[in-house]
Design a protein that fits this description.
The structure is a single chain. This protein has 653 residues and is α/β, with parallel strands linked by helices. Among the domains are: 50 residues; 205 residues, Rossmann fold; 98 residues. It is 47% helix and 18% strand. It is built from 20 helices and 18 strands. The strands form four sheets. Strands 5-6-7-3-8-9 form a six-stranded mixed sheet, sandwiched between helices. Helix 3 packs antiparallel against helix 4, helix 18 runs antiparallel to helix 19 and helix 19 runs antiparallel to helix 20. The longest helix is centred in the last third of the chain and has 49 residues. It is globular, with a radius of gyration of 31 Å.
């Protein structure tokens, strides 16, 4: 469908791409990855026709329907949300008007046998067929469904687009792109402005999307769930992996290890060969061998190892001073901004050492509650901060709150006091600000650099409660992993506002859901919450369908439909888990076979040529046994989950 052929793009004397080639085929869903600045966005712009390559070309059918969502775009104004969204149906509306026009003509004609009449009939048939293909009769319903899925409420449909933030207006543009039924989707960070529920809706949509998809995202879970192939851009080259992101990471590590091994072997060969040449260059008896080795070196293809940015965040939060057992206690907390009601009658208690997440749709009050906790906003009700609690706050727009006129070092210097002043450069170094970087003005820093600087400020005082509002915005995957590890090791209390499921997974053990002006507590991790939420949504969907057909159906039938949907979802989960069990059983069998083979060798090491002083051999042996134990434990846990789900399913029968 799309073919990138020997493409080179140069800026001055720098080649961003060096003769890259790959194909994007029908129905393929591909993740485009690489560190910031590698050229991911530029490649999408080339495919979309916004840029032209220096050399090479991009081949695609002339009549292809291509939908491109950039990170930044010009947003339209002057219309309501639904009116702007209906622009996606420009062709459908034009065809409908033409159908009406021809129908009007035909209704006034009586020359049924004439050539002109037959041409009108044929044209009307063609237009009706095209209108049916475009699903014209369901256009408004699809527009509403898409807007609702992306987080809008029906009351929003009649509001002017200018009343919404840039993030919400970006959702309208995304809705228009999806509704145009493109054959190819080019999406550049589509989840940046979405909450968890909207991300899940988009994820489900893209899973079922019957077209080609090229996706840039820093959301690991989103990439894993939506794509089956990963293309990495690194140092002007592309590397193609026919696997989702998580598997790509492992394969990439293996590829680099193989490259390094081959590189070392070749360098050793070159060194030995050069030593032979230097030693015997002037000996007549060795002249033939010397010339042979010189020619060998000249013909040798030198192995290049991919450069790798070894710089990484090295974060460790200071030891948290001990606080009281109860860190925050909220009773009947309410908040409104003028006539806009945010939430009311909120009750919750957060205890020392707990790590919790605030989740929910945008605009439901997560950031507002965070600001109430840190004392930035007034409220109604009672909120008590516990004994000896010191709060470190990372605001969602923290990067915008920094003084752009200051340098990186001055930013830290203005807030550092006492002994910590002697460690300022060490702290900045841990956040990748090294050497001349500390003298950069904040105004020239990227979004990711500003976020890292804002996070560095939190290191200047040993807080025992961290309130972090979207701390992973602008961070790449590696930086997010390091921050997550640091927060897992943090021995204080954590409140985290985030829509990144992979980041939250394994980090928090309690979820507070902000929805419809209320706050609901959910015990367990983020995927436990999302699974329960999905089942609840199925029930709610079925309930609404039953209400619409109440006159023609009984409550008994409605309940049966709800139970059927529940059983259907449970069956899907059971099949998925059983597939994982089957895969684990195969892996366990292979490990057991490998360990048994090693045991046989160890029973008679001399016969099998085993060197008992070979540490790597025994290290690998122990690694296999450890892996076997871990997989056995996973296998047992999966079986327990299967049994639990089967019990639930039986109860719905």
């Amino acid at each position: 469908m799309i073919s990138v052929n020997n493409l080179t793009l140069s800026f001055g004397g720098f080649d961003l791409f060096k003769g890259i080639s790959f194909q994007l085929n029908d129905n393929e869903h591909v993740g485009l990855v690489g560190k910031n600045g590698a050229g991911k966005t530029t490649l999408l712009r080339l495919i979309a026709g916004e840029l032209q390559p220096t050399k090479g070309n991009i081949s695609l059918p002339s009549d292809i329907r291509l939908g491109y969502l950039p990170q930044q775009m010009k947003l339209a104004s002057g219309k309501t949300v639904i009116e702007e969204t209906r622009k996606a149906f420009a062709e459908t509306i034009q065809i409908k008007n033409y159908i009406n026009h021809i129908s009007e003509q035909i209704s006034h004609r009586t020359d049924y046998e004439s050539k002109e009449y037959l041409e009108l009939i044929n044209k009307l048939t063609e237009l009706n067929d095209r209108y049916a293909i475009l699903e014209g009769d369901s256009a408004d319903a699809r527009a509403e469904q898409t807007l609702l899925g992306l987080g809008f409420k029906r009351a929003d449909f009649s509001r002017q687009t200018t009343e919404f933030s840039g993030g919400w207006r970006m959702r309208i543009e995304l809705a228009k792109i999806l509704l145009q039924n493109p054959q190819v989707l080019l999406l550049d960070e589509p989840t940046n402005h979405l909450d968890i529920e909207s991300i899940q809706w988009l994820e489900d949509y893209l899973k079922d999307f019957q077209g080609a998809l090229l996706l840039i995202s820093h959301d690991r879970a989103f990439l894993d769930n939506v794509t089956q192939r990963t293309i990495e851009i690194s140092l002007g080259n592309v590397y193609d992996y026919r696997v989702p992101y998580s598997q790509y990471v492992e394969l990439r590590r293996e590829r680099r290890e193989q490259q390094l091994a081959a590189y070392r072997n070749q360098q050793k060969l070159i060194e030995d060969t050069q030593e032979f040449i230097d030693r015997f260059r002037y000996k007549a008896t060795k002249a033939v061998q010397v010339q042979s080795r010189i020619k060998m070196l000249e013909r040798m293809d030198i192995i290049e190892v991919d450069e790798e940015d070894s710089a990484t965040l090295n974060i460790r939060f200071p030891e948290a001073p001990r606080s009281g057992d109860v860190v925050i206690e909220a009773k009947e907390v309410s908040k409104s901004f003028g006539n806009k009601h945010v939430f009311s009658d909120v009750h919750f208690t957060i205890e020392r050492g707990q790590k919790v997440a605030f989740v929910g749709r945008n605009g439901e009050g997560k950031t507002t509650m965070s600001r109430i906790i840190v004392g930035e906003l007034p409220y109604d009700g009672h909120l008590k901060i516990g004994h000896n609690v010191t709060i470190g706050y990372f605001a969602q727009n923290q990067d915008e709150l920094l003084d752009g006129s200051l340098t990186v070092l001055e930013t830290i210097d203005h807030v550092a006091v006492g002994d910590i002043r002697t460690r300022m450069r060490d702290i900045l170094g841990a956040f990748l600000f090294r050497g001349e970087d500390v003298d950069k003005r904040v105004s020239v820093l990227s979004g990711g650099e500003r976020n890292r600087l804002a996070m560095a400020k939190l290191m200047l005082q040993p807080y025992n409660l961290l309130v972090l509002d979207e701390p992973t915005n602008h961070l790449d995957m590696r930086s997010k992993d390091v921050l997550k590890n640091a927060l897992q090791a943090f021995n204080g209390t954590l409140i985290l506002v985030s829509h990144d499921r992979d980041f939250l997974n394994g980090l928090v053990d309690k979820i507070y859901e902000f929805t419809d002006g209320k706050v609901k507590e959910h015990l367990g991790g983020i995927y436990d919450f999302l699974q329960r939420k999905k089942l609840q949504n199925l029930k709610e969907l079925e309930r609404k369908q039953v209400e619409q057909k109440a006159k023609n159906s009984t409550s008994t039938n409605s309940e049966q439909k709800i139970q059927w949907e529940e059983r259907k979802e449970l069956d899907r989960q059971i099949r998925k888990l059983e597939s994982q069990v089957e895969k684990l059983e195969k892996e366990i069998a292979m490990l057991e076979s490998t360990i048994a083979e090693t045991d046989t060798k160890l029973s008679n090491p001399t016969t099998h040529g085993i060197d008992l002083s070979d540490k790597d051999f025994f290290k690998k042996y122990e690694s296999h046994k450890t892996e076997l134990m871990e997989k056995m434990e996973q296998w047992e846990n999966l079986l327990a989950q299967v049994e639990e789900l089967k019990t639930k399913r039986n109860k719905t029968n």
